[in-house]
Amino acid sequence: MDRLRITGGKPLQGAVTIAGAKNAALPQIAAALLSPHPLELSNLPLVSDVENMLQVAELYGASVTRNAHTAVIDASAMVSCEVSYETVRRMRATVLFLGPLLARFGEARVSLPGGCAIGARPVDMHLKALEMLGADIGIEGGLIVARASDGLKGTRVILSSPSVGATETAMMAATAARGETEILNAAREPEVADLAACLNAMGAKIEGAGTHRIIIEGGTAWKAAAHHVIPDRIEAGTYAVAAAITGGALELVNARMENLAAVIQALEVMGVNVWPSDRGLVVSRSGTLRTTDLTTEPYPGFPTDLQAQFMALACCADGTSLIRETIFENRFMHVPELARLGADITLQGTTAVVRGGKPLKGAQVMATDLRASVCLVLAALAAEGETIINRVYHIDRGYEQLNRKLAQCGATIERLQT
């Protein structure tokens, strides 16, 4: 498995181009299967999760033509079929195919997704949303089997919590239902709004995406469409922390400040400067890092996908920071690895007590999931000496050419192939 070798201590300077959002691209690839007309997606990130999702779309019978950051997905000739667990076990997002397949063919058989290192991500909310729309759901031999022999019917879907995946599943399925669907307590993430924009370009009629209440008029007349995926706010937040943790300055090209309000507020509390530029935003730090208290929350609150990165940053602040995780129960697996670099962190239930100000020092560490991996990269950039990060395939799932982008900004980083 490949490793990263990083020698820390260099302030990063320059510009980083933020790629398209992985978490926006994945449901849009699934949405392409709703329509018998082609969908062109541009600004796709070159990451393994997107590549895997496109491969699954092909296994379901869609034709995929890929050119750099663009893919044309043509599902005109596909038929409903089953894709094996061996194919989908690497990523949970394949459950997003369930709604489009059910909506289009009246039946869908999708393997239950594999486990996730950061804790349980049950699909029950996806299934309950589809049941509200009139589907019969069962589990047969590790498969989710969904049927709607009389078609899906528009209704009021009330989500027990603002789940991004369940909101996206309900929204996609409702585009083909008879009548109007109202989704209440919907997730408000920018990726949900971007999926709605993609579906509307394909012919759907969706209002309210990005708020807690979404209205979908069913019976969509599909048409060929093109859509540009939004920039990745989590990648932007990660590079913002890279600038802050090294005491450098980076321009984040394509980053959208309006999608990063909670992140920018947290950075400014810690003594980091953030301001808009003609191409995105600029993040810099020249003074001492201050401590912070953070709690992860659904959007527009502080994102769980940036919790690990900010924990690395808090390790370099002089004093005690409190970081509370409310979204995933096992999302502190990076803590023992940060300790190998010299971090002083105590876990108290869902709260991490970070006693910063002690110098981090290079060591051998092991990545456990996507965001934990990049947390270790950030800590290594600030550490004294050399750090080796193992199992960096996790990084490839969600960060496009991370080592190249960092190296272009002055980091001493090398990918070691084994």
Automatic annotation (TrEMBL):
First-listed, main subcellular location of the protein, grouped into a coarse class: cytoplasm
A UniProt-annotated Pfam family: EPSP_synthase
Domain Enolpyruvate transferase: 7-406
Modified residues (2-(S-cysteinyl)pyruvic acid O-phosphothioketal): 116
Compartments reported by the entry: Cytoplasm
Residues that, per the record, bind phosphoenolpyruvate: 22-23
Molecular function, one GO term: UDP-N-acetylglucosamine 1-carboxyvinyltransferase activity
Biological process according to GO: cell division; cell wall organization; peptidoglycan biosynthetic process; regulation of cell shape; UDP-N-acetylgalactosamine biosynthetic process
This protein's UniProt keywords: Cell cycle, Cell division, Cell shape, Cell wall biogenesis/degradation, Cytoplasm, Peptidoglycan synthesis, Pyruvate, Transferase
Catalytic activity, EC: 2.5.1.7
Active site, per annotation: 116 (proton donor)
Residues holding UDP-N-acetyl-alpha-D-glucosamine: 92, 305, 327
GO cellular component: cytoplasm
Catalytic activity annotation: phosphoenolpyruvate + UDP-N-acetyl-alpha-D-glucosamine = UDP-N-acetyl-3-O-(1-carboxyvinyl)-alpha-D-glucosamine + phosphate
Source domain of life: Bacteria
Protein family: Belongs to the EPSP synthase family. MurA subfamily.
Task of the protein: Cell wall formation. Adds enolpyruvyl to UDP-N-acetylglucosamine.
HAMAP family, per database record: MurA
Protein name: UDP-N-acetylglucosamine 1-carboxyvinyltransferase
Organism: Nitratireductor aquibiodomus
Name of the gene this protein is made from: murA
